[in-house]
Automatic annotation (TrEMBL):
Keywords: Oxidoreductase. The keyword Oxidoreductase applies. The lineage of its organism: Bacteria, Pseudomonadati, Pseudomonadota, Alphaproteobacteria, Sphingomonadales. Residues 189-216 are annotated as: Disordered. This is SDR family oxidoreductase. Belongs to the short-chain dehydrogenases/reductases (SDR) family. GO terms for molecular function: oxidoreductase activity.
Amino acid sequence: MSEHKTILVTGAGNGIGRATVMHFHGKGWRVAGFDTDGEALGELRGALREGEALLVEADVGNETAVCDAFDELSDWLGDDPLDLLVNNAAIADPYCGPLEDLALADWQRWIDASLTAAFLVSRSAVPLLRRGESASIVNISSTRAVMSEPDTFAYAASKGGIDALTHAMAVSLGPDIRVNAIRPGWIETGPWQKQAERTEPDHRAKDNEQHPAGRVGRTADIAEAVEYLHGAGFVTGQHLNVDGGMTVKMIYED
């Protein structure tokens, strides 16, 4: 049995997922990641130690694809447990346009990419998580689960579903597996995209000032919150806002 803990991150190729993989890899964990973006996974693979990472191109909103990806993960793990699952996969762009123009197929894409994916991956992961001790799941929700912007219906609904799924799973899977959610606010992911889409932050003073913490969020803020929740043995069924305080500050239009 390996002496290292193992984490699985969905949506691992870019942004918060990529940063979370790199954070835990830097802590000596073995890392596994699923993503639909093969190019991003290829770049990420080159940054990880051989033998300590498994990166699989898979659509985690598709049941067959999840089953196939878990076949690879199970073979890679052998008899070792999975210690931590991070359900991060989602469509990053929350804007879907006016409600009356939103096609059912487009609505379903947002729901499947995040909420359905979290269900499918968690269902397959539970037997692997139960092999070890102190296993946990961290679902990546959003502050939009509790406060909305215009024309984000499907995204907001998917993240609200993530919140509900989190507490339902915490009650049902405990005490063997703890389940929590993180609600990121404005997190700058530009430096953590694949090379072809990478950008450097360019924030205005008022972008930073609207946060009581004094700045826009970084992907490291989420990765560190994941680490905290995994280690917090008396915390389960919770939804942690990681938003620099933005959701508790009244913002008035100029």
